[in-house]
Amino acid sequence: MKPVKIGLCGLGTVGGGTFNVLRENAVEIAARAQAPLEISLVGARRDNPLCDLSTTRVTRDIFDVARDEDVDIVVELIGGTTVARELVETAIRNGKHIVTANKALIAEHGNEIFALAAEHGVAVRYEAAVAGGIPIIKALREGLAGNRIEWLAGIINGTGNFILSEMREHGREFSDVLAEAQALGYAEADPTFDVEGIDAAHKLVILASLAFGIPLQFESVYTEGITRLTPQDMDYAEELGYRVKHLGVAKQSDAGVELRVHPTLIPKERLLANVNGVKNAVLVEGSAVGPTLYYGAGAGAAPTASAVVADLVDLARDISAEQENRVPSLSVTDDALRDLPIVPMADVVTPWYLRIEAEDKPGVLSKVATILSDLGISIEAIIQKAPPPGATRVPVIVLTSHAAQGKVDEAVARMEALDSISSSISRIRVEELDG
Amino acid sequence: MKPVKIGLCGLGTVGGGTFNVLRENAVEIAARAQAPLEISLVGARRDNPLCDLSTTRVTRDIFDVARDEDVDIVVELIGGTTVARELVETAIRNGKHIVTANKALIAEHGNEIFALAAEHGVAVRYEAAVAGGIPIIKALREGLAGNRIEWLAGIINGTGNFILSEMREHGREFSDVLAEAQALGYAEADPTFDVEGIDAAHKLVILASLAFGIPLQFESVYTEGITRLTPQDMDYAEELGYRVKHLGVAKQSDAGVELRVHPTLIPKERLLANVNGVKNAVLVEGSAVGPTLYYGAGAGAAPTASAVVADLVDLARDISAEQENRVPSLSVTDDALRDLPIVPMADVVTPWYLRIEAEDKPGVLSKVATILSDLGISIEAIIQKAPPPGATRVPVIVLTSHAAQGKVDEAVARMEALDSISSSISRIRVEELDG
């Protein structure tokens, strides 16, 4: 059988991992793809000592790969959104299929890239862009094709989840665990993309577009990071029966689509609440199947390579079958994409956790309760304990029922205006995740 | 776009569910399949009141469906292994693709059916045969195609899992919960297939064949049911840090392949240990990706229909692309299947939980410890408590380290031969599920 020729761009962590997985599992992969997957050309600025390149063509100019005659599929693993975009578009114009792990590229420029690919009759695959080795893209695009997806919620950034797990398990402060995460290599020197939720937002927008059949719209995602969470919030959440996770949430309703990344209280008994460390997991509610969960390694050389190779095998099967564009990039063709409105955050309805640091004076609780009641916000639970000796402030924890964020914004503003409440109120959304 | 014509055989729970999912989600499904999926003909002994058949051709002879000119794909949802086999083979000989939910049919006759399908150039799909709506077949066949699968372990029978969840949560006896399960419709009047693990074994053999590229071999699966478990075993397991689940386990090693269904102690902190009620979950360890878990509804009309439709969309995409046999039924072609030996149960190595009812006499513990030590079986943990007043017997709980079953068989035989141990010893295998 005619080998399928791979052009590998980038030989960093993921590139090196992909190279090695293709080599180590060559026999199984060839049996599944029904054709050998041959690394025809590698484009990389420098060699990777973990890769044996002795029998491989290597070029220092990755654009060579995009134009090489002996390449069927270009694998883009260089990252970033400028050179990577040019590379991918050049490859598409040269009739190459694309496999990428680049969430930022797809989230921010996917619409244009998919349109170009459709025009040239080639496929763009990106399983590796979201949740590492977990085949979630395939599940949404194919495995759940019989469902209307009602919503999905995911732990899709391992760095953030590692930090929150450590904070909860050991009562450590955010900045302390962040420093450790950086030392361990779980977080970059500039950790903004992870802890502010930008990385998760890139991934969420890809999942949502597949799930709901809408164009990619990264700029529409509400993004809130985890830097203001405290171990005390974790403890109160636990007492109320919840855990705090950094979730990407996408929902569709008659009002439109919600796209949001933020800290979230979720019930302790959910499987999602028990996903710890750097693992990822995505919970998807389908109209026929109900809730389904997909869990595994969200990052790392070999897990991400696993996803890249899954896409390569899929494409190889298509190429062998001489059908090279079998599944549209976003599961449906461009003309079937829907222009659904994005629900403004003020209209998003969830329960809320509020932590109010109040002066230990009579009447504070009653004022808080009145403010909430005036705005039609019901209280699910309250925790107020006697303050430690000598403390002048006492934390009051409120769990509200479902309320529109706009109402909660107003309630918090009114509470913060009270004399007896002198610092800003901590707020975390709640998701029950029960269908 | 030319519609893809479906011939639906069986209008029971799953058939009715499939009919309705195809109708309700027709627009989304057509957008994904890139062609409408049209129910061209229904074969059913009687109508289903939940299905509006007013605009559908219906026949009382399902073999009409297998031969009808206006059918591209035959969906077999009648169950059983005799008529269903004949139906499927007739359809294949008439050039129809097959989608089925029939685990027994695939497990017991899959090799012949797949060979016939390959001969006739048609596809056989069976996502719905294992774990309901969870796209596990697709994950193994495609999503994890870059991995060597080291092992998998699954809760793949919802009835059994419901029973064990109730036993653990409420301390109820097996027979009591079984009666309730039957009343609730979670278990058949003859519950043997569920509680003895036969249903799980059918499903396990399918997963293992996909995972390891081996022929289906249902008769090689070791099957042990849950009828002898007691709530006391659940309590002791909990005390040792474990939960008891009815698992299907498939592993490959240098010695060959292990295929076994049996009660298993698994660590409490595993996600799998927290899957309760009628839900299913499969944990798969891939050589590149590491552990991945897939969770959701394992049965029911709509969840199973979700899986049937996923296969239909896949096939429709193939048919639209004019490539009708893109992915081999077992992920690899027949000639790439491997004839791996099945490891005999005596050679299977796991830790063991033993519950020994011993006379409350001095020296029993020492005898037990000596027997184990003589056979080279290490002890991980022991629980022995003071017996309640008036009791003459005291339970001794032993958790061994890894030991070959043959050794443990011998140890148990020697213990049961002691005077001070007058009843049979309860034994449950342990799986750490940590890679």
Automatic annotation (TrEMBL), chains A, B:
L-homoserine binds at E188. It holds the Pfam family Homoserine_dh. Pathway: Amino-acid biosynthesis; L-methionine biosynthesis via de novo pathway; L-homoserine from L-aspartate: step 3/3; Amino-acid biosynthesis; L-threonine biosynthesis; L-threonine from L-aspartate: step 3/5. The keyword NADP applies. NADPH binds at K103. Residues 353-430 form the ACT domain. Its EC number is 1.1.1.3. NCBIfam families: PRK06349.1. This is Homoserine dehydrogenase.
